[in-house]
Amino acid sequence: MRILHCCLSCFYIDEYNYQENVLPKIHHQNGHEVKIIASTEVINNNKSLSYVLPSSYKTPEGINITRVPYRRYLPHVIMKKIRHYKYVKKLIEDFKPDVILFHGVPAFELFTVSRYKKNNPNIRLYVDSHEDENNSARNLVSKYILHSFFYKFIVQKNIQSIDSVLYITPESKDFLKKYYNIPEDKLEFFPLGGVIIEEKQKKEMRLKVRNELNLKNEDILLCHSGKMNKNKKTKELVENFIKIKNENLKLIIIGTFTQDVEKVVMPLIQSDSRINYLGWKSAEELMEYLAASDLYVQPGSQSATMQNALCVGTPVLFKNVKSHEIYMKGNAFSIDNYNEMEIIFNNISNDNDLLKTMSKKAYCLARDILDYNKLAKKITE
C-alpha cells in the first residue's frame, strides 16, 4: 500500500517523536511504501520557527521526503497562513497514493488532495486536527478571518471528499465543530500516542540512566520537559518541589528556557542540589529519562511528552482540563491549582507503593488507546 503523509499545515521537524514522524516510520516498518510532503518550516536549535530550502531526501529509515516552497502570488507573511505550495499536485499524482493522511486542517492544499480523491474515489483521505482554542484562534484576525471564514470555507468546500477528520482531544473536536462546522459523522477520535516500551527494556533504560544520575534505589525521580515558557509553569513546579525536604525526592528538567523564565527559574534550580537541569535531549534520550523517572510532571501547557511517558509506564501529573479526562485511569494526578503539587509530592514521598501501582495502570491505558502501532493500522485497515 502507498501511504502519503502531507505535513503542510505546520512545521515538520526531522527525526523528532511527533505524530507526523512516528506514523510514517511505523507504516514503513510494516512494509508500506511511504512518502512525506512537507513545508519548509522547521524549528531550529533555539526552538523558534525558521525555514530550510526546498529539497528531497530520505529519513534514516529510508522514507522519501520532499519539502515544497510556498507559492509567491502574495507576500510570505500571508502565504504562510494560506498554505498554498508549489508542486504538490504533481508529487501526489506521481506517487499515486492509496491513502493520504493530511496533518492539520487549515491549509489551502486541502483543495489539491480533495481533487485527487475525486479523481480516484477508491483511495482514502484522512485529515487530522491538533487545533483547539489553546493553540489556535488566539487573536481577532486568527479567530474571525482565518478560522471562522477562510479555513472554514476551505473545509466546507472539501468535506465531502474527506473520509474522516481525526481529532486528538475533545477540545479539538469542539474546535472543529465550532469554527469549521464539521458534522459529527465525519469526526473520529485519534489521540496523540507513543511507542510502547515494554517492561524489560524499560528496566534496562531505567538502570542505565539512574546510574548516570547517581540515584539510589529508594530515590523518587520526577521529570519535567519542554520549551519552558511561562505557560509550562516550571516556576510553580520548582517552587512546590523545594517545599518538600525529603532528600530522596529528585527532579530533572529537560529542554530549553525562554529568557524571561530562565532568569526566574535558574536561581531556584541552583538553590536545591536535588534538582538537575539537563538541557536539551534528543527524542531517544528523552525516552530513556522518562523510563528512568517515577513521575512525569506537566502542570502547565500540554505536550506530547505526556503520552510518551505513559507509554513507558511512567505515571503523570497534569492540569485538570477536558482534554486530559481520557487519560485519568488511576495513572495520573490531576490538579486544579498549582499548590496541590506540594501535597502530591509529599504523598508520594511517604508512599513507596503508590507510584508502582500507578505505573501498572499507565501501561494498561497506553496499550489500550495510545499505542502508535494500533493507531497506524487504523489508517491502513
Helical coverage, percent range: 40-55%
The topology string of helices and strands comes to EHEEEEEHHEHEHEHEHEHEHEHEHEEHHH
Structural class: alpha/beta
Number of strands: 16
**What's the main sheet like?**
8 strands, mixed
Strand-residue proportion: 15-25%
Q: Nearest-angstrom radius of gyration?
A: 22 Å
Oligomer: single chain
Span between termini = 11 Å
**Major β-sheet strand ordering:** 5-6-2-1-7-8-9-10
Could you characterize what this model shows?
Strand 9, helix 6 and strand 10 (187-189) form a beta-alpha-beta unit. The longest helix has 19 residues, at 140-158. The protein is α/β, with parallel strands linked by helices and 381 residues long. It has helices at 19-29, 76-82, 88-95, 110-119, 140-158, 170-180, 199-212, 234-243, 259-270, 283-292, 305-311, 340-349, 354-370, 372-380; strands at 2-7, 33-38, 41-43, 49-51, 55-58, 64-67, 99-103, 124-129, 164-167, 187-189, 220-228, 249-257, 275-279, 295-298, 316-319, 332-335.
Any descriptors?
381 residues; eight-stranded mixed sheet; six-stranded parallel sheet; 21% strand
Q: Can you describe this structure in just a few lines?
A:
By secondary structure, the chain is of the alpha/beta class. The strands form 3 sheets. The chain has an 8-stranded mixed β-sheet with strand order 5-6-2-1-7-8-9-10, with helices on both faces. A 6-stranded parallel β-sheet has the order 13-12-11-14-15-16, with helices on both faces. The protein has a two-stranded antiparallel sheet with strand order 3-4.
